[in-house]
Specification:
mainly beta, Pdz3 Domain, 2 domains, six-stranded antiparallel barrel, globular
Length: about 240
């Protein structure tokens, strides 16, 4: 690992997660502590906000590009789970793994990918993993050496009825948090942790931004009647997300 001042240090591999293409390395050196970037809240990041991408494109160390958040929640079918921040801050080969920071210097994303076709046409479209997701995964890798993707024991989707786009429970597995809480197929999910849920990706974003063992509050509706809010404890997903 090479620091900004040119110092070369060995790094210890801690762990990685293939589904989000993230890894944790630990710097090994004489210093007892190293300054670290402050994590920002990627959920609070707004479209249009100014962001700065830092990396070493084509081996040009510590290069900085500035752009805006073009959109959030992008999926480009590159990884098993994607919730990318799209930005027009130039990201190229060598930027991957570098920070995407806001104007206050807080980490809001990890630079991950570019749209190759757009790059060939001279258009900068880059994608970064949100900091909230990266933080949860990094904590799991540090504490356990692997990341346990959480779930509640249910799948969600739309009812398929014309005009009804509300998110419903489509399947509930036995002996899971959802089953023990009495969740039923057809229940409409209104809110999770006081956050309004509009589609499947809204609920996955809330779930995946928490780690196994954390509690989530669900507000649902059944047969057009609002149900009492209930609590679910996240368990490990039995497979890839």
């Amino acid at each position: 690992m090479v620091l900004n001042n040119g110092t070369k240090l060995p790094a210890q591999y801690i762990g990685h997660d293939k589904s989000a293409d993230l890894a944790v390395l630990k710097i090994k050196g004489e210093e007892t502590s190293w300054p670290a970037v402050e994590f920002g809240d990627s959920d609070a990041l707004r479209v249009g906000a100014v962001v700065i991408a830092i990396g070493s494109p084509y081996s040009f160390q510590s290069s900085v590009t500035v752009g805006n958040v073009s959109q959030k929640g992008r999926r480009i079918h590159l990884l098993p789970y994607e919730d990318f921040i799209q930005t027009d801050a130039s990201i190229t080969a060598g930027n991957s793994g570098g920070p995407l920071i806001d104007v206050d210097g807080r980490l809001v994303g990890i630079n991950t990918a570019v749209l190759t076709q757009a790059k060939q046409e001279g258009v900068d479209i880059g994608f970064s993993t949100p900091s909230n997701l990266a933080f949860v995964i990094a904590q799991s890798l540090i504490e356990k050496g692997k990341h346990e993707w959480p779930w509640v024991g249910a799948f969600f989707g739309t009812a398929g009825v014309p005009g009804d786009t509300r998110l419903q429970v489509t399947q509930v597995w036995r002996d899971t948090p959802a089953a023990r809480a009495g969740m039923q197929v057809g229940d409409v999910v209104l809110e999770v942790n006081d956050r309004q849920i509009k589609d499947e990706y809204d609920i996955l974003r809330v779930i995946y931004n928490h780690s196994v063992g954390k509690k989530l509050w669900f507000q649902t509706e059944r047969n057009n009647k609002k149900q009492p809010a209930f609590e679910l404890v996240l368990e490990e997903f039995p497979g890839n997300p």
